[in-house]
Amino acid sequence: MSSSRAELRGRVAFHAYRTVAWLGRTLPEHTGRLLFRWLGLVAHAVAPGVRATVAANQAQVLGRPVDDPLVKASTREAFVLYARYWFDSFHVVRIPFEELLERFECVGIEHMEDAFDAGTGVIMALLHLGNFDVASRWLDAQGIDPVAVAERLEPPELFDLFVRHREALGMEVLGLSSEGVGRRLKEALGTNHLLALVADRDLTGRGVEVEMFGRTRKLPAGPALLSLATGAPLVVAPIYQTEDAWKCVMFPPCTIEPTGSRRADVIALTQEMATNFERAIAAAPADWHVFQPAWEP
Q1: 194 contacts 256 by C-beta, under 8 angstroms
Q2: What is the mean pLDDT of each run of 10 residues along the chain (297 residues)?
Q3: Which ranges of the chain does DSSP label H, i.e. alpha helix?
Q4: 3-state secondary structure 92-117
Q5: Would you call the peptide bond into 155 cis, given omega within 30 degrees of 0 as the criterion?
Q6: Which residues, other chains included, contact 185 with Cβ-Cβ below 8 Å and sequence gap of 6+?
Q7: What pLDDT score was predicted for residue 157?
Q8: What is the model's pTM?
Q9: Which helix or strand (DSSP H or E) is residue 1 part of?
Q10: Which conformational region is residue 205 in: left (phi greater than 0), alpha (psi within -120 to 50 degrees), or beta?
Q11: Phi, psi (5° rounding) for residue 20?
């Protein structure tokens, strides 16, 4: 892609992000949800290339052909739920903490509390599923400030908007390529913090090959490496969008039998994370917001 075209796409993304942020913070919830549902349906109708990519991902998860009626319906719903994700991510700052605590359900919270009691910190392995921005706001309501890592976006103004938004939700955001990011993550665990690491896509190309839904794909090695290096538990924690609220399910910590080989242990722990990801996605395939190819063609 030429630099001028990439710059144009970056500017469009910047203004789109700013517009969505304004709508999310301005519109009443009912009105905003209706508008963004319509926008999701429009995107599904007018973006055949993206629709085909999402359908391929959904077909792999569901174990059906791409032209299967269930896959088509799940693909359409994926666009609707992704649109809702964007509205809710910005609108949640308008929801009072008391109301959010009533509308956000968490199952398995003892896995996080046990880690804090032990003083190890906890690594939450998240997916592009449901709405982790709302989860961050829920954590903030309880006085827990997660540390997160984000892919650097272009133009820089877009990344700045993204970081300011996440910081308003209570997160500390570190750039994926920032100098010393690994050291900062270890320090956060050493001071009993929660790391929120979105780990269902390998953005570096240096990930670990795992099996998910019958095919191999790569996942980042970072969560497993951090867990093995610090002793902090690695907990898969999908967040689902329910009819009018949200639900987090914190799985029991991923565990493996140590082999004495760091490489083998990283691979095994990452596969265990991937197996839990399978369970998380299978519970609500349309809520998995991966609009890029999840497997090699």
Answers
A1: no
A2: 71 89 96 98 98 98 98 98 98 96 98 98 98 96 92 80 89 80 93 96 90 97 97 98 97 95 97 98 98 92
A3: 3-26, 29-46, 48-62, 69-91, 97-103, 110-118, 132-141, 156-168, 181-190, 222-230, 262-282
A4: HHHCCHHHHHHHEEEECCHHHHHHHH
A5: yes
A6: 147, 149, 174, 195, 222, 226
A7: 87
A8: 0.94
A9: none
A10: left
A11: -60, -40
Q: Classify residue 226 by burial, with Cβ atoms within 10 Å: 0-12, 13-18, 19+.
A: buried
Q: How far is CA 69 from CA 45, 134, 155, 217, in A?
A: 16, 31, 40, 26
Sign of CA dihedral 266, 209, 202, 84: negative
Is 217:75 a contact under the CB 8 Å cutoff? no
Six token digits for residue 118: 């032990």
* Per-residue pLDDT at 239: 98
CA–CA distance, 182 with 149 (Å, rounded to integer): 10
pLDDT at 178: 66
